[in-house]
Amino acid sequence: MPLSSGLEGQRVLVTAASTGIGYGAATAFLKEGARVVINSSNKEKLDGALARLGPLGEVHGVQGNLAAKADLENIVRSAKSLLGGIDTLVYVTGSPKPGRFLEMTYEDWRGASDLLVVSPAYLAKLVADEMISTKTGGRMVFLSSYVIKEPTLAIALSSVCRAAVLSLVRTLARDLGPKNIRVNGIMPGFIKTGRIDQLAQDQARRRGIKPEDYIREIEGEIPLGRIGTTEELARAIVFLGSDMSSYISGATLPVDGAVLRSI
Ligand SMILES: NC(=O)c1ccc[n+]([C@@H]2O[C@H](COP(=O)([O-])OP(=O)(O)OC[C@H]3O[C@@H](n4cnc5c(N)ncnc54)[C@H](OP(=O)(O)O)[C@@H]3O)[C@@H](O)[C@H]2O)c1
Fold first, then answer.
1. pLDDT of residue 30
2. What's the CATH number for 11-190+229-255?
3. Whose CA is nearest to atom 39 of ligand 1?
4. pLDDT digits over 89-103, tens only?
């Protein structure tokens, strides 16, 4: 029997989705027949994404900065009113600036904590309140990074702060399971998006190499020999964000071409 996602008509909120991983996830949910709200902080980029996604199905946009409390509240309120509720939350966020530990200031740590720790936790609380009040249950999928298992010195803020998401997923899965809410995570390795270009530029500047040299270096580290695509990652997000994964909760899945070494 072919697997069916069962996502037709399901209400999905995808954050940080004007480009890259979030955009890829929104595309995949729309192709499965879901009704989707996307968010990002830049209105022009958000409008551009909406124009490209529109032909795929019902999609709305809510502008908002995931690091701001009032914006998080507005994103959930708007998604609820546009879709009538939320069945699946896909949490993607922006990137903190790259760089090593000794370069970071107090403000850098505050900013990264707001974006990578407070934001997923508070958004989850708002969405859980909604799922519990309507007694529909639901699913949450939190995107983080393989660096939560293997800190990378060149992205200190990300390596430290994102580790909280691993615990958030487990904590919520155990706390919200009795309310029929499943919570899972995904730790991507290297996925071809603007973030990889940003890291390649940063490494090129610091080390006097070409960005394409950095890309070749990365590919040499990945056992599957190449950087992944947003489409490949989106298939895993759809799996965890639908009832295809009905007995999985509290898991964090690497989607990384086996780049992760730790067990
Ligand atoms: N690509 C990879 O290999 C990889 C691997 C592991 C983890 N990640 C992480 O995955 C996340 C997505 O990255 P990506 O690779 O898809 O990069 P991307 O193409 O640069 O996408 C980043 C997205 O985040 C949005 N965004 C940024 N700051 C935001 C904010 N404060 N509030 C709301 N939206 C915001 C951006 O839209 P606006 O500019 O319109 O706000 C954009 O849609 C990042 O956290 C990245 O660090 C990426």
1. 98
2. 3.40.50.720
3. 42
4. 999 999 999 999 999
- Tell which atom from ligand 1 comes closest to the C-alpha of 46: 40
What predicted TM-score, i.e. pTM, was given to this entire model?
0.97
Say yes or no: CB of residue 65 within 6 Å of ligand 1.
Answer: yes
Q: Provide the residue ranges of all domains of the chain, joining segments of one domain with +.
A: 11-190+229-255, 192-227
Could you tell me if the CB of 186 is within 6 A of ligand 1? no
User: What pLDDT shows up at residue 91?
Assistant: 98
66 Cβ neighbours under 8 A, 6+ residues apart: 15, 16, 39, 41, 72, 75, 93, 94, 115, 119, 123
Q: Is the pLDDT of residue 3 over 90?
A: no
91 lines ligand 1 (CB under 6 A): no
Between residues 43 and 4, which one has the greater pLDDT?
43
Tell the residue nearest (CA) to atom 25 of ligand 1: 16
